[in-house]
Amino acid sequence: MGRLVFLFASSLLLMVAATTVSAATVEHSFYVKNLTVTRLCNRQVITAVNDSFPGPSLRVREGDKLIIHVFNMSPYKITIHWHGVFQLLSAWADGPEMITQCAIRPGNKYTYKFRIINQEGTLFWHAHSSFLRATVHGAIIIRPRVRHSYPFPKPYREVPIVLGEWWNANVVDVETQALALGVGPNLSNAYTINGWPGDLYPCSQNQMYKHRVKQGKTYLLRIINAAVSSHLFYKIANHNVTVVAVDARYTNPYVTDVMVISPGQTVDVLLTANQPVGSYYMTANNYASGSGTAVGVPFNPTTTRGVIIYQGASSSTTPLMPVVPAFNDTPTAHKFFTELTSLVGGRHWVPVPLNVDHKMFVTVGTALDVCPPNVSCLGRPPVGAALSASMNNVSFVSPTSLSLLQAFFFNVGGVYTTDFPANPPVQFDYTNPSINLDPPLLFAPKGTRITKFKFNSTVEMVMQNTAIIGVENHPMHLHGFDVHVLAQGFGNFNPATDTPKYNLVNPQMRNTVSVPVGGWAVIRFVADNPGVWFMHCHFDGHMAIGLSTAFIVENGPTPDTTLPPPPKDLPQC
């Protein structure tokens, strides 16, 4: 018996040692400051990290600890969010301004410390203050631990593809102006691939992303939509790709020639260079889900493109151009959003929890607000109202003197209430445009109303788009968790007919879920991560006007399920 105990203890020590050896500490310094770049015939001052746009890629392995020193040398307050990282017991490092921390003021610094646990694939980091995310962002590339392999053939090369959008303006001013007028922000002037607009834009013939490939080799493209307010179709001429992961979750292989990626989402695909030697354009253009509605949500109709160049291709060859999807191609978008499934049994796969403790039905969409002081409210009918947004008729307002997480941790009253409604206060025909003729339905009161969950409780949420102002596909991002996407559909959610459609076997997992235009999505997750977690539309213009809420997850029963105190250098308001 003693020998058995000794052998078990020795084996446990070896396992712990192996885990320790396979994990590393990855340390970086981010210097946030002004950078002057030339795009679209203009010299523009932007805010950037380490003089690069996009910012530096973080390359880590699952299990690694990250230490990121952020020095704010810009003229703006800022925070950095590590989008999709669970932040298990490190909620203080999550980054959304006034949710988990106060902003880092100009001239100050903050060190983010966290581990990458049970995640592999592609995520990204970005500013979580005003519209600074437009230029302050970069990839997070998470490879398996040492001696672990991908659940697909090893690629010849790995290539980050960061999709973004560009304004010929100061992006902070873009948001400030929109809020001052009570309208949506001005449209961007271009889309970008790895920071370059491509040759369809003025003065951009030599500002196009190029990637060279060898015929017969397979490449892992890590595609990130870092755009501020645009879903993007992505295609490569004459090439199919195989989707193998989304939002750092492995999927069953899915072959397609087109992808649609919402702001905040990532898609990992295998691209095999199996076409004749030549050059092939890659393109990204807007999926403008609300453009065909009665309201006609405005959008940027342009296309960015880069080029795949085969080794040996003639420089005089004109690249082949793909057929770009129509901006309102909802059937193609919905097919991609709904047909992906999880790789059951793959590393870090999580089965769907079957017993639900909290059921929520939450409307998501735009709204109106009584014109606030110092806002003109002249840009959108009815005159005298400002554009707003809400979830269950609550237009979220961030605290101003203390972050939600600080208020929760130190039990400070008066910062928030935990009475966010689990169901709409008024039931109506959610997707019927005629609701816009009923003014009381259009106005959403402001408030910092959130929800509290017991540790390890299971939450199911139906997110229902509304036709208030106009229907639109909303990319809803939940911090701190991945969720099972059980089903998605159009029209009003019907429990009797739609619940049987739930995929409880291998649904895709996401941290950002696109709620279909004029439709609904059902998600489920286990609240096993203590802290305060932001949920919001990843259109920054919508987040700024209240399309958000937050969840408190209480501590668990043991020290390893209890949130530790904040770091000493946590910024103060």
TrEMBL record:
- Name the catalysed reactions: 4 hydroquinone + O2 = 4 benzosemiquinone + 2 H2O
Q: How is the cofactor bound?
A: Binds 4 Cu cations per monomer.
Q: Please list which residues make up the signal peptide.
A: 1-23
Question: Primary place of residence?
Answer: secreted
Q: Which residues form the Plastocyanin-like domain?
A: 32-145, 158-313, 419-556
Q: In terms of domain of life, where is this protein from? A: Eukaryota
Question: What general EC class does the enzyme of this chain belong to?
Answer: oxidoreductase
Q: Does the keyword RNA-binding apply?
A: no
CDD domains to which the protein is assigned, alphabetical? CuRO_1_LCC_plant, CuRO_2_LCC_plant, CuRO_3_LCC_plant
A cellular component annotation (GO) from this entry: apoplast
Q: Which InterPro entries match?
A: Cu-oxidase-like_N, Cu-oxidase_2nd, Cu-oxidase_C, Cu-oxidase_fam, Cu_oxidase_CS, Cu_oxidase_Cu_BS, Cupredoxin, CuRO_1_LCC
Entry-linked SUPFAM superfamilies: Cupredoxins
Q: Where can this protein be found?
A: Secreted, Extracellular space, Apoplast
Q: Which cofactor does it need?
A: Cu cation
UniProt keyword list: Apoplast, Copper, Glycoprotein, Lignin degradation, Metal-binding, Oxidoreductase, Repeat, Secreted, Signal
Q: What Gene Ontology molecular function terms does this protein carry?
A: copper ion binding; hydroquinone:oxygen oxidoreductase activity
Q: What is its EC number?
A: 1.10.3.2
Any single GO BP term: lignin catabolic process
Query: What NCBIfam families does this protein map onto?
Result: laccase
Q: What does this protein do?
A: Lignin degradation and detoxification of lignin-derived products.
Q: Which family does it belong to?
A: Belongs to the multicopper oxidase family.
Q: What is this protein called?
A: Laccase
Q: In which organism is this protein found? A: Gossypium schwendimanii (Cotton)
